[in-house]
Design brief:
The complex is a heterodimer of chains A (155) and B (705). Chain A has six helices and five strands. The longest helix of chain A is centred in the last third of the chain and has 14 residues. In chain B, the strands form six sheets. In chain B, strands 3-7-1-14-11-12-13 form a seven-stranded mixed β-sheet. A six-stranded mixed β-sheet of chain B has the order 9-17-16-15-10-26. Classes of the chains: A alpha+beta (155), B alpha+beta (705). Chains A and B meet through helix 3, helix 4, helix 5 and helix 6 of A and helix 1 and helix 15 of B.
Chain lengths: 155, 705
Amino acid sequence: MINFILNGQEVASHAKVNDRLLDILRTEFRLTGVKCGCKEGECGACSVILNGRLVNSCLVAMGSIEGSTVMTIEGYCETERFTVLDKAYAAVSAVQCGFCIPGMMLASECILAKNPNPTDAEIREGISGNLCRCTGYNAIVEAIGIAAKEGQGLW
Amino acid sequence: MEAISKSTKKKDHEAKISGRALYVDDHVMDGMLYGRLLRSNKARARVVNILLPELPDGYYVVDKNDVAGINRVHIVLDDTPVFAEENVEYVGEPILMVVGPELKPVERILHEIVITYEEQVPVLDMRKSDTVFFNYNYAKGDIDQVMREADQVFVETFQTGYQEQAYLETQGIIAYPHDGRMTVRGSLQCPYYVHGAVAKALGYEAQAIQVIQDVTGGGFGGKEAFPSILACQTAVAAKKANKPVKVVFDRREDMEFTSKRHPSVCTYKVAVKNGEITGMDIEVLFNSGAYTTLSPVVLQRGLICANGVYRIENLRVTGRAVKTNTVPTGAYRGFGAPQTFFAVEMMMDHLAKKLGIDSLELKEKYMVRQGDETSTSGKYHFHVPLPEMIKRIDELTDYREKRKCYQQQTGRYRKGIGLSMFFHGCGFTGSGERDMIKAVAKIRKNADDTVEVLASNSDIGQGLKTTFCKIVADTLGIAYDQVYIDNPDTDRVPDSGPTVASRSLMTVGGLLQRAAAKLKQEWKTGQEQIVEEHFVEPDFVIPFNLKEFKGDAYPTYSWSVNAIEVEVDTLTATTKVLGAWGIFDVGVPIDLNIIQGQMQGGFLQGIGYASMEQMDYNDKGIIRNNSLSDYIIPTAVDVPNLITEIINNPYTHGPYGAKGAGELPLVGAAPAYVEAMENALGADLNKVPFTPEDTMRILQGADQG
């Protein structure tokens, strides 16, 4: 058994040590907000926050997460910070096909957690591991900027 | 700004941002089997023998012998086999499918199957193809005479490469039999295309097929025809196993074996007399790959755009889409237009240099105006806003000044700026809307006075759920929250045609507006009412005749001017995009945020096409750039200064003045980018993508020279 904290809850998984975290989250825990885009760490659709850092869950082996803390979009959308980002994304209609969006939201959180007042260039750098084929990124960058302003003190 | 243009919260925002939206791979059904395709690893061969291992219980092999209906996927010409018969025509052609309750054993079985091939010599180079799938020619004026009388005839060839749609969600379908029917659901753009194809493959009556669109993670054309192929294969498997079957591609499979943009080679011969362009003789060649799929219509659009936005009275355009033993190519945002617009814009640029003027000056001299004839002897019925767009671009970028300033640079870093002007014909090409699609749309008022939109067009990220609902709510004068739309289900929605060709909002949105206006007149509070509307061609249209290739290919056009500024590092041959500016006329935006998102996303996709999206096959016919590590698309840091503006130029026959929008922003990025590279490098360039390797070749050539 592999024990870890998933979205604030202690869980135990039957996974093998070389299973991907991505697959276990989707199949064993039915957390389908974690999306599979490429399985080689290029697209960021499967991003989760692992011990406070943004990672591609397709590149994380289950054997390495004993005792870790994992947050997916399902856990994140229960937070106050999510609410601020959600509103900002809605205000600029940053969500198009939506497939990259759970990963983008977690990347947004990590940018703001590290730096509550990022510049546009820092925001772009922070989401550069998350591909989006729909938006051209402008609206997403703008949304994160709005959330930084609106969420003063939250991050 | 019009009142309707004011942005509202998107209908699908909440489901998507919270991760609750269910895409095809998120669905699990009781007893569901998983399928994987076994594909040809030869580009051209006869399949001599297939040796199968013993199958565990509950596992099936599905092939051509299981196709009860016709073993051809209904697209246009119906030549794509559902599963390969005697011959395979490209690396990746599906031969059979293995399905079973667990994926690992499915994959083991696939590895144990032995196929014996009798190899044949494949045709890989489109210029050496001896099979012409489609051939269209048209002409006006007397091109032979102006060529004979010309002072000079300039000849040049331009090339464009594959472009991969690279939607974030790969292709996927679930099929399940029930009550003597077959339901197919998945990631797709055109439910009724899938419906027709699956009925033919299973040999079922149309009523026995149901197609449901799941939330779709992007399409860009890649989910126009391809899902019909996968749906036929999956439905045949589900019928054989009598269980639900799910097939979701991994990224490599998706990149190597699904359709992509047609590579092209275009040759332009331009006659010049007394310093004036007197005629163009244009040859367009598209690589269709192994099967015809959508190539006839892609080629038609490419040919209609071959002379760009210019008044060319003596014109001859000949076009061929040819067969090669490579992956079949198909629909991609722009649909043939990005290829020929690249060629004509570069040709004008090179001509201008030869005539000793700047390209913008030459382009301005020949660009069309309202009332002018189109390439196919139709008419530009409405205002052509190119002059004010050029003025605005110049204000934003200081284009004319920079262009001069960047000539004859030396030193390590060299800048360049380029400009393109272009249109996108709004709606389905030619008489397709009137003769083939015949769109029908409905709205239903429920007893509780909520209103449901019933149409077969799908929201694949472009915001259709929101814009359709806005049109209906505003026309009825009721709250936006009172109007809703579910994903299309062919059991519930009429056939309002495919989600393609920048037609959904202009054509189907127009039907919904009419339906809403009618419902408003007949509104009965507390009662259920249904209103249905059918497509009628606007009466000003000069009917298009495909045989003669004459008439209005489109009722109207969306227009744009792009400028791109670059800085080339001549030591490393890398290029930075300093700025990209696009002015777009899409009629009246139905939602400004949504339109801006479409323009920015499409423009960046076009810059990717121009600068970095390099894909090609090797001498065995295998596509090697089959991952997002090897096929690079733009990230958030690649074009930080991307600016898009909308001008107000209402289309009198569109809903609220709207016209086509989705494809426009991709069409002109490539020539603007390559023109900028020419300005920086001081050389004539003629290919896209134009990558750092190409820059290095130019720089080294210059050094040696």
